[in-house]
Structures are given as C-alpha cells and as structure tokens.
C-alpha cells in the first residue's frame, strides 16, 4: 500500500513537470467532474461530515468504505441535494458549477443520479411508468430485460419488493436516467450472488467501462461494506471514511485487504493523498 501511495504521488509530481503551469491547471479543470471542498454537514444537531474533501475526475469510479454511522449515506444524500441536512461550511462543485445549495431537480438535470440505500415504495406508480417519467426516450423493455426484471414492470415501484429486488429496481431507474455521475449506496446489500453479477455489469455500463479510459466521460461512487460487488465491476480508486472525513485513499483491492487485516482504524495512519 505504501509503495502504491509513493508511486501515485510520484506520478502526480511527474505530470506537474511534464505539463507545467497553466496547461496542467487547464487539463485538471477539463477532467474534473466533482469536487468537494472542506464540506461540513450536520443533522439533528449532530455534526456528521467534517471538513470533507474529495475529487472525482471524468471517467473515474470511486469506492467508499467505512463503519456504520460514519457519514457515507449522508455524503451521497448531500451531493444529491436532499434538503434535510444543514450545510455548515464548504462547497460542492459539479461540472464547474457550485451546486451546494441547488435543488435536487436541478442536480438531476445536471446529470447526478443515485441508487438509495433504502428507497421508499411509491404507491400508485408502476415501475414501467416511472421509467417513462425519468426518460421518455428510454427503451423500458430492454432495460427491464437487462436486469431480469420484466415481471416487475406493472408493479408499484418498490412496493412489496424484497431487499434484493429493491436494489435491481434502483438500477433499472439509473439505466433509464443514464446520469453522468452515478452514486450507489450499497447496491449489493442483500443481493444474491447471481444478481450481484447483473448489478456489477449494469454499473460498468453506466460508468462506460467498455470504453478506453481516455474516452470515458461518466463517473461514479459506490458505497460497499464487503466489496463482493468489486469482483464484477471496476473501481479505479477507494477511500476509507472515519468520523466524517476520508482518512485513507488508494487501490480498492489493497484498501479492502488492509481493512480486513487491521480494521478501519488501521487505515487511519495511511499517508495517501485524497
Ligand atoms: N435525523 C437525524 N438525527 C440525528 N442523527 C442522525 C439523523 N440522521 C442521521 N443521523 C446520524 O448520522 C450519522 C451518519 O449516518 P449515515 O447514514 O450517513 O451513516 P453511514 O456511514 O451511511 O452508515 P451505514 O454503513 O450504517 O449505512 C449516524 O450516526 C446517524 O445516526
Ligand atoms: Mg449508509
């Protein structure tokens, strides 16, 4: 892990020499999709995110690990624009625009999509109708087939769905939306082994992993506890969150190994740049 950190730091330094001055800055600006700067957030009088920083470039998919209650869902909800949180400081910049105080609708129109950890059921709205509302141009049948979900087309969204079915329903909605930045809050939680593969393939398709890295424009962030899903999808970078901020960043496989070896606290000494 430390060797990897050193190589990554050296590469960043090398780019600085190869692309000096303003050219390097312009390249960074063009490639950057999401930038979170010193974000502090509270809810119900409790501070959850503390001076949180994260940058995600176009074409990158990041994984986020961390113990229960550390603020992972809060982070995604705040990026999505769910209004129940108080922003105490910092900002969120997406596609070069400050979206910190933008409405959820505007953020969705800008290209942010999310699969929720525990989405609500919607009585009276059939899944096939929701697909058409999300994207009138979407080929609902082919999306439902992709997720082996045709049998649920006429059922009310998430109503009576099992835990694993809810996760596939969320993926169907994202495949209809085709967001530029996809946020996945534990899409593998409660999902059986065959459906984890389907969900992994859907995430790869949403994040354009079939294209060469230099051609990808879509990005994502995925929260996962056990990392099984990472056997079926490609994550480029991973972070460990503790106490509302990132304490370690690096290669997803190596970070998972380190968590298994020494726990989340064992990652706190990591010196990788965020
Ligand atoms: N309305 C609220 N009032 C007080 N505290 C809240 C409220 N909503 C969330 N919290 C607290 O914020 C903290 C962060 O919650 P969050 O859901 O972001 O955790 P998480 O990292 O996603 O955890 P998990 O892995 O269990 O999903 C938790 O301690 C939670 O109890
Ligand atoms: Mg959560």
CATH class: Alpha Beta
> What's the CATH topology label?
Rossmann fold
Bound molecules: adenosine-5'-triphosphate, magnesium ion
- The number of helical segments is 9
Largest sheet: 6 strands, mixed
- SSE string: HHEEEHEEHEEHHEHEHEEEH
Please, how many domains?
A: 1
Strand order of the largest sheet: 6-9-10-3-11-12
What is the β-strand count? 12
Q: If classified by CATH, what would the architecture be?
A: 3-Layer(aba) Sandwich
The residue-averaged pLDDT reads 91
For the record, give the distance between the C-alpha atoms at the N and C termini, rounded to a whole number: 14 Å
From the helix content, strand content and strand pairing, which structural class follows? alpha/beta
Global outline: globular
What is the C-alpha radius of gyration, as a whole number of Å? 19 Å
**Which residues form runs of ≥5 with pLDDT under 50?**
none
Percentage of residues assigned to helices: 25-40%
Estimated share of beta-strand residues: 25-35%
């Amino acid at each position: 892990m430390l060797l990897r950190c050193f190589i990554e730091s050296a590469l960043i330094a090398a780019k600085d020499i190869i692309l000096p001055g303003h050219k390097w800055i312009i390249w960074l600006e063009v490639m950057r999709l999401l930038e979170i700067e010193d974000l502090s957030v509270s809810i119900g009088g409790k501070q959850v995110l503390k001076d949180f920083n994260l940058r995600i470039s176009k074409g990158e998919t990041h994984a986020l690990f961390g113990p229960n209650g550390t603020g992972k869902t809060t982070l995604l909800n705040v990026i999505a624009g769910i209004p129940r949180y108080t922003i105490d400081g910092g900002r969120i910049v997406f596609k070069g625009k400050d979206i910190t105080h933008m409405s959820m609708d505007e953020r969705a129109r800008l290209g942010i999509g999310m699969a929720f950890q525990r989405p609500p059921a919607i009585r009276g709205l059939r899944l096939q109708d929701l697909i058409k509302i999300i994207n009138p141009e979407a080929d609902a049948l082919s999306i439902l087939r992709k997720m082996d979900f045709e049998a649920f087309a006429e059922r009310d969204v998430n109503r009576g769905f099992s835990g694993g079915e809810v996760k596939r329903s969320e993926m169907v909605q994202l495949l209809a939306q085709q967001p530029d930045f996809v946020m996945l809050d534990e899409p593998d939680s409660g999902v059986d082994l065959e459906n984890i593969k389907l969900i992994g393939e859907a995430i790869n398709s949403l994040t354009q992993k079939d294209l060469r890295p230099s051609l990808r424009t879509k990005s994502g962030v995925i929260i996962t506890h056990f990392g099984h899903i990472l056997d079926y999808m490609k994550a480029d970078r991973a972070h460990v969150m503790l106490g509302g901020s990132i304490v370690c960043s690096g290669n997803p496989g190596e970070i998972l190994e380190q968590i298994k070896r020494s726990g989340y606290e064992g990652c706190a000494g990591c010196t990788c740049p965020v």
